[in-house]
Amino acid sequence: MEKSLKEQLDESHGFRVIASQESVYEVRDDEYSYSVNLSTRTCSCVKWQINFFPCPHALAAIQDARLNVYDFINPYFSVKYFRMCYSFPIQHVSNVEASFSEDSILPPITKRPAGRLKVKRIKFAGEKKLIR
Predict the structure, then answer these.
(1) How far apart are CA 46 and CA 52, in angstroms?
(2) Does residue 28 contact residue 14 with C-beta atoms inside 8 Å?
(3) Residues near 60 by Cβ (< 8 Å), separated by ≥ 6?
(4) In the structure, what pLDDT confidence band is assigned to residue 27 with cuts at 50, 70 and 90?
(5) What does the pLDDT look like over 66-89, one tens digit per residue?
(6) Which residues contact 93 (CB under 8 A, 6 or more apart)?
(7) What Cα–Cα distance (Å) separates residue 58 from each residue in 2, 48, 73, 94, 123?
(8) Are 96 and 66 in contact (CB under 8 A)?
(9) Rounded to two decimals, what is the model's pTM?
């Protein structure tokens, strides 16, 4: 998480931040403008909503508001939740050989037609049909 946060923070340094309302900011780069709402944790680039991790635009707005960046990161990225995921024992599969049977699904049996294959090609606009 720290590595990703550092990369995002480095990317956020080039943005200009303009406060619009109390928790709404406009973040601009050379080409685009993004709307960041810190109270609803949304950004118009939608990366924050998808990844649950602040995008560079959101990080620029958070730093401009002089708030703690870690308060805006989803708790699922914390060490506590990581340890909780792996705290339960993993059950082994007891009988692996029985799970594979001879009645498994196979691809369909196809038979290639006899003779040379017919090639249908698309004729270009100036080509005429030959009459024999």
Answers:
(1) 10
(2) no
(3) 12, 13, 15, 17, 27, 36
(4) very high
(5) 999 888 888 888 889 889 888 888
(6) 99
(7) 16, 8, 11, 48, 55
(8) no
(9) 0.61
For residue 17, the 8-state DSSP code is E
What single-letter amino acid sits at 97?
E
Contacts of 47 (CB under 8 A, 6+ apart): 55
Residue partners of 38: CB distance under 8 A and separation at least 6: 23, 24, 25, 58, 61, 62, 65, 67, 72
Instruction: Give the Cα separation of 9 and 73 in Å (integer).
Output: 13
Please tell me the total number of residues recorded for the chain in this structure.
132
Angle at 28 between CA 22 and CA 30, to 5 degrees: 170
**Model pLDDT for residues 99-112, shown as the tens digit of each residue:** 555 677 788 888 88
Q: How far apart are CA 4 and CA 21, in angstroms?
A: 29
* Predicted local confidence at residue 130, as pLDDT: 65
d(CA 55, CA 42): 9
**98 has a pLDDT exceeding 70:** no
